[in-house]
Amino acid sequence: MKIGLVLSGGGARGIMHLGVIKALQERKVDIAAISGTSAGAIVGALVAHGYSPDEVLSKLLTINFLKYLRPSFNGPGLLRMDKAEELYRELLPHNSFEKLKIPLTVTATDIEAGEIVYFQSGELIRPLMASSCLPGIFEPIRHNKRLFVDGAVLNNLPIEPLLKDEVEFLIGVNCNPPLPDKPIRSMRTVIERSLLLAVRNKTQERTLQCQLLFEPKEVGKYDIFDIRKAREIFLVGYHSVTKSPDKLRMLEDYSNLPKQ
Fold first, then answer.
1. What is the set of domains in the chain, with CATH numbers?
2. Are 62 and 32 in contact (CB under 8 A)?
3. Which of 9, 13, 42, 221 could bond to 152 as cystine, CB 3.0-4.6 Å?
4. pLDDT digits over 155-184, tens only?
5. Name one GO molecular function term (predicted).
6. Given the residues 8, 35, 38, 131, the one annotated as active site
7. Which of 8, 35, 110, 150 is catalytic?
């Protein structure tokens, strides 16, 4: 039997995925395939490459992300991501889906065609950049003659590739829980709240198709840009597994089923 792991987008909140994966690995959960959007795609790629969750967290805490961003003058976004390709090539030098240790699907949105695109083979880095290209913040990414933005625009919890791959037990990790009771005091808050509402509305039906879902409400207190709180967000994900006895029993029960 095959276990699939689907990881949502959510900016810095996506660091939560690392904590969840660490807890699953400690319980010897064998992940057969990963599907992710945006931050979930990035985490999925690094783990599928072979980095441990702790290694990825350590790298996140030391990287100066501003070094890899450039302002965009009169472009369709505030920042350009092109220089970030250097960072990806340091982390994933093979730049290939086929050389990952776990099969991975990366979700992006073709902004011109208005279509979801699932990447599973060939070049890895440009699809990852496309999947995490937040509209309005970053210039869209051109790849294979198509123009892409963040996969979360159309699918923030991409279960479909895993279901097509006949995964029999689906673990979903969503870092956009029901909205917290935060006051609306700035333009940034209005924009972020609006994006999260739109994304969550499209995600709820997909969460119901997961046999196991980790969606801790505690992660909602962090902003999508709270990279400085990476360690706290990591622990939210970790404890969402370790402090959920019912879900742990479900994992144990499933792990005892005969494997085909």
1. 3-251 (3.40.1090.10)
2. no
3. 9
4. 999 999 999 988 989 999 999 876 655 667
5. hydrolase activity
6. 38
7. 150
